[in-house]
Amino acid sequence: AKRTGRNMVQGYEPFMKKALAERADIEKRLRLALTAREISPYYQPLIDLQTGEIRAFEALARWRDPDDGFISPDVFIAMAEDIGLIMELTNQLLTQACSDAASWPKNIQLAVNLSPKMMVDRLLGIRIIRILAQTGLAPFRLEIEITESALIADIDLAKTVINDLRTAGIKVVLDDFGTGYSSLSQLSNLYFDKIKIDKSFVATFQSNDKQMNIVRTVIALGKGLGIAITAEGIENVSQMDALRQLGCRFGQGFLIGKAIPSEEVPQLLEHQCPH
Ligand code: C2E
Ligand code: CA
Ligand code: CA
Ligand code: CA
User: Which domain of life is it from (predicted)?
Assistant: First the structure.
């Protein structure tokens, strides 16, 4: 086995070296960016599909590198997870987002994404509650979005964390619904306040009968369980109209608005309600 390994290493060495060097470089820059607080939340609006009013903003991490421009969160969040920086990154982003949201009108919610890797921290609930106290944001205004993969690693621990959050009045949202492993039993056992239908469904449900039925069923299920449904990734009017007609409560997507920096939030809110 060793000999084969050696041959393979020889063949791939130049590529490996380059990839490793690039990775080491971006890791170094990620550490520096964290220290310099160069990663900040941008805010994407969520509307009530029936009234068109903005009801919440989702905080999405943005890292602007002086040389490379914006680096995708899909890249640097995964890296922060790998090199043990996710806790620090989340702390920074959550603190920033909560303090931004504390100055918004009281009827506007803040949604924040939590890495599934953080769901194994027994003290997570307490940490988040402490940040709320520090920033003065009321717990009921915070929505924590987790994906189905957060539920796989340690379901009992995930339940404990979700319970802590909900006991404190924080809302818990199941993100990217339909892409992972969630089953109906998980939905009925875990008590989510909201469910987000993944954007891959929104992109194609109108031309796919099965997906259309799934979307319709999830919306009906939400009604039955008292769980509000959000559709993400709405890019055109036809998708928005169809979802509205199906009775979907909330919507989010480029059609409604992309993520904007904190400074632009008051403007956007003012623009939608001139009085
Ligand atoms: P997500 O939580 O599912 O966030 C939605 C993603 O879809 C965002 O990408 C958003 O910009 C994008 N999006 C919104 N509307 C549309 C649309 O109409 N069409 C399309 N095609 N895309 C749309 P983004 O900002 O690149 O974030 C990617 C993922 O990175 C997020 O997926 C989330 O899982 C993760 N992420 C972002 N910020 C954070 C963070 O602060 N903490 C953690 N743990 N994860 C984060
Ligand atoms: Ca999300
Ligand atoms: Ca999502
Ligand atoms: Ca996603």
Answer: Bacteria
